[in-house]
Amino acid sequence: MMPANTSEILSSPASSGMRERLIVALDVPNAREAVGLVRSIGDAAGAYKIGLQLFVAEGPAIVRELVASGRRVFLDLKLHDIPNTVSHAVKSAVDSGASMLTVHASGGAAMLKAATEAAAGRLKILAVTVLTSMDEDTLHEVGVPTSILDQALKMAALAKSSGCGGVITSPREAAALRKLLGDGMAIVTPGVRPAGSEVNDQKRIATPAEAITAGASHIVVGRPITHASDPTQAALAVIREMEQTQLSK
Ligand code: C5P
What we know:
Elements: H1 6-11, H2 13-20, E1 22-25, H3 31-41, E2 47-50, H4 52-58, H5 60-68, E3 73-79, H6 83-96, E4 100-104, H7 109-119, E5 124-128, H8 136-141, H9 148-161, E6 166-168, H10 171-181, E7 186-189, H11 208-214, E8 218-221, H12 223-226, H13 231-247
Parallel strand pairs: 1-2, 1-8, 2-3, 3-4, 4-5, 5-6, 6-7, 7-8
């Protein structure tokens, strides 16, 4: 039977577990819209993702504001620079109160280690394996003569040996990466679309249940929730889809 209301679904242990695993992408142009969404979705998401659009517009103030209101913030800046610069940027991210921060695994071991050392356990460093917007042609274009899966595996192994807390990957590669990484690391997958929702510009998509079954520890969902007429209900529906994986065990 479907839970009758928000408090009922949030009070069940299984759903609170899945709620922690839902990250809502705040891909909006300003703090006003971001705060409006967070107020309306509230506890129905475990964390909120601030990406380049919002961060470039509002700076760390929006991170601090959400953190001060009790939210966990995933800062999706996809850093890729010399180790010294990345190290200082990570320290600034730690000071902002963010819980997770992305870097590009292709920045190499020295950069990844600089990031994890600067995080000093106060922030989870998540390494982007291969952007989901890339296909094999674009990989070859930038001088990587391999398949997406091989490159994702290589980047995930590098992230692990460099001490990263997790990786970002498409749901399509999640199962192979889970096998490689074991249970200890986070696998965060964007490109998730609830059953029956709009695909938008995402190409390599999966449903929430498919992503969790493939080994994702967290899923990132943006427009299917933030553009919904009732974002809270849309988030709760995603959590219910994630829970199906536990019911079918
Ligand atoms: O609206 P949608 O659910 O497509 O949003 C997905 C979010 O995940 C966006 O913020 C997008 O930038 C991000 N993302 C992605 N693919 C990646 C990394 C991040 O879609 N490889």
